[in-house]
């Protein structure tokens, strides 16, 4: 061995020791998993599990809607009153705001290293405030609040690995089950001034009433500091219930995350969604409120998300994850006359074992 070869070999050995030490060190401090090993919490089915691994997650999601949009233009309440509904009549009940609270319980199981099974159930609460006008549309009769709550639709999916290593990718195939009610009733203030129990508008129902096919593709790469990922998702109803189904929904999202330390990462995300109009209609959902019209559903919107992922690394809280995300609409082009979507908040807890 020449002197130069000896030096080269020593350098290689030192390098090898340094690298293995570095990795051992990283493994040790991040034994609870990397915080950026999961996507921003609003993204579902972003990661897979190893064979025999379980994960439970709880997500709380709050969404608000306030004011009215026609496409992407603001519409005042008085303008909404004179909107033609296409049948010669105009609106007499105008939605003012809506709040949705969702409690989502998720379950993941690594069937093997290439297939992860995922299930989700959720509990939903919806509140909507409306203003009722008289038959002439000249005087406000009053304001009323409507409330619905109960279990929403459930889903089961399988995530199938396509690639693993420098770039991870998988597809997801699943089905949404109609466990949520579509015959919820509310008490509404009518233009006559009387209160009447009616079937709640489509957007106040808890479920879709239909079996839906769920398809997805996710790609992600984890790097030392900056990691990224992207997901495309498609949902389409397979049948109709009570004479209608929601329009097909296509969602695309991409994110970049930054690892702040072994416990904490932050990310920004773009989210685009395109949803079709409701197909068909429920003959029991009638009235002169834009939310009772199937043409006033669906549309396009773009949202910007900022998020934090936290994972415990100390003995007592190792592997326990907490995450938060704020999703703010930056552009909306909705079908017909609809309430404007506001910022959503998502809080979550996850644990795998
Ligand atoms: Cu998981």
Name of the CATH class: Mainly Beta
Distance between the termini: 51 Å
Order of helices and strands: HEEHEEEEEEEEEEEEEEEE
> Can you tell me the CATH topology?
Lipocalin
Q: How many strands appear in the DSSP assignment?
A: 18
Task: Estimate what percentage of residues fall within beta strands.
Answer: over 45%
The percent of residues in helical segments reads under 10%
The CATH architecture assignment turns out to be: Beta Barrel
Q: Strand count, sense and closure of the main sheet?
A: 14 strands, antiparallel
Our Rg estimate from Cα atoms comes to 25 Å
Name every ligand kind in the structure: copper (II) ion
Structure description:
With 353 residues, the protein is mostly beta strands. It has one domain: Autotransporter beta-domain (Lipocalin). The protein is built from 2 helices and 18 strands. Strands 1, 2, 3, 4, 5, 6, 7, 10, 11, 13, 14, 16, 17 and 18 form a 14-stranded antiparallel beta sheet that branches. Strands 8-9 form a two-stranded antiparallel sheet. β16 (299-311) and β17 form a beta hairpin. The longest helix is centred in the first third of the chain and has 27 residues, at 3-29. The protein is elongated, with a radius of gyration of 25 Å. Residues 13-28 have low confidence and may be disordered. The chain binds copper (II) ion (CU). Residues 47, 49, 55, 108, 352 line the site of copper (II) ion.
């Amino acid at each position: 061995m020449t002197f130069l070869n000896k030096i080269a070999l020593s350098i290689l050995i030192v390098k090898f020791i340094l690298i293995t030490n570095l990795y051992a060190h990283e493994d040790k401090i991040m034994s609870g998993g990397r915080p950026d090993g999961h996507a921003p919490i609003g993204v579902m089915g972003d990661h897979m599990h190893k064979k025999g691994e379980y994960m439970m997650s709880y997500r709380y999601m709050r969404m608000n809607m306030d004011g009215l949009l026609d496409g992407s233009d603001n519409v005042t309440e008085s303008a909404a009153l004179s909107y033609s509904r296409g049948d010669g009549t105009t609106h007499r009940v105008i939605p003012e705001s809506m709040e949705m609270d969702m409690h989502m319980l998720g379950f993941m199981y690594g069937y093997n290293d290439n297939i992860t099974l995922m299930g989700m159930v959720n509990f939903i609460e919806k509140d909507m405030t409306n203003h009722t006008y008289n038959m002439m549309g000249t005087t406000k009769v009053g304001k009323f609040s409507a409330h619905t709550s109960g279990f929403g639709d459930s889903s089961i999916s399988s995530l199938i690995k396509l690639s693993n290593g420098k770039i991870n990718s998988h597809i997801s195939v699943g089905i949404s089950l109609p466990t949520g009610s579509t015959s919820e009733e509310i008490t509404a203030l009518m233009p006559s001034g009387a209160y009447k129990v009616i079937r709640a508008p489509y957007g106040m129902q808890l479920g879709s009433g239909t079996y839906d096919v769920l398809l997805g593709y996710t790609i992600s790469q984890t790097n030392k500091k900056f990691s990224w990922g992207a997901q495309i998702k498609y949902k389409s109803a397979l049948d109709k219930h009570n004479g209608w189904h929601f329009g097909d929904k296509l969602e695309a999202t991409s994110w970049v995350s930054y690892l702040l330390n072994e416990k904490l990462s932050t990310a920004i995300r773009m989210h685009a969604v395109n949803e079709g109009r409701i197909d068909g209609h429920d003959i029991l959902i009638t009235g002169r409120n834009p939310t009772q019209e199937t043409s006033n559903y669906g549309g396009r919107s773009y949202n910007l998300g900022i998020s934090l992922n936290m994972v415990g690394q100390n003995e007592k809280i190792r592997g326990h994850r907490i995450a938060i995300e704020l999703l703010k609409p930056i552009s909306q082009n909705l079908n017909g006359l609809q309430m404007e979507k506001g910022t959503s908040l998502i809080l979550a807890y996850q644990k795998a074992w």
